[in-house]
Amino acid sequence: MKHTIPLIVICTLFCLASCAPKGPFWLTDKVYKEKVKSFAEIIKKQIPDTLKDTIGQPVPSTWVGTVNFGIRKPNYVIIHYTAQDSVEQTLRTFTITKTQVSAHYVIAKNGTLYHMVNDYLRANQAGVGKWGSVTDMNSCSLGIEIDNNGKDPFTDAQINTLLLLLTDLKKNYNIPQANFIGHQDYAPKRKPDPGPLFPWKLLASHGFGYWSDDILELAPEDFDYTSALRIIGYDTSDLNAAIVAFKRHFVQTAISPELTQLDLNVLYNVYKKY
Fold it and tell me: What's the rounded Cα separation, in Å, for the pair 236 and 219?
């Protein structure tokens, strides 16, 4: 009898292992497919909403299918850092219901790319913020999370993968050069990512976002920097937060809310590109 229990345990574990689905995220993959299926059913619905007039009488309505339509596509890319310790931790964070956060793509330190939400679907990545007139960035953007704690430089492998991905996204969805921005650009009151260590100049040289020219013209004495920030896209309702966000993106050396003459020259140069 001494050997019976271990043998039973071994056999049981073997059976469970042989029957278990492969992969650590098989369950979340299953939930993803079920949600996509439910969204597809919603799209197929052809029953118009019942409208009622001011006295409660139903307004005549019917469905007429048009031949002129298409699927909505993303028009912005929002770049984040994960602010977590590892890509494994981030994948766990994005695959549990209670966090209610996600991204379309995650890029590991070794350059591995994880695609987590179909490009045409809405991920919970940008949150509350404003860029130009856009206040619901989740509905019109793709979110890319880069495995980084906010303190260390981004790896070459990550940036190489990012550039390849952005090249595809820009081509596939005809995303304008100006529409590649950081999370802090969109939400300056709440978010610091992707931070001053992110290589925005390199991205701009490949056509993803703008950067200032090497030779800067002196900003005019009457330069309205608040309006310039607003024209670029920043929410200036908290002017200090907007200035910090701009400097973390386009200056990257000093990130205080004060604007030096150099900062003004950079801002003047950048805003003229918009």
Answer: 20
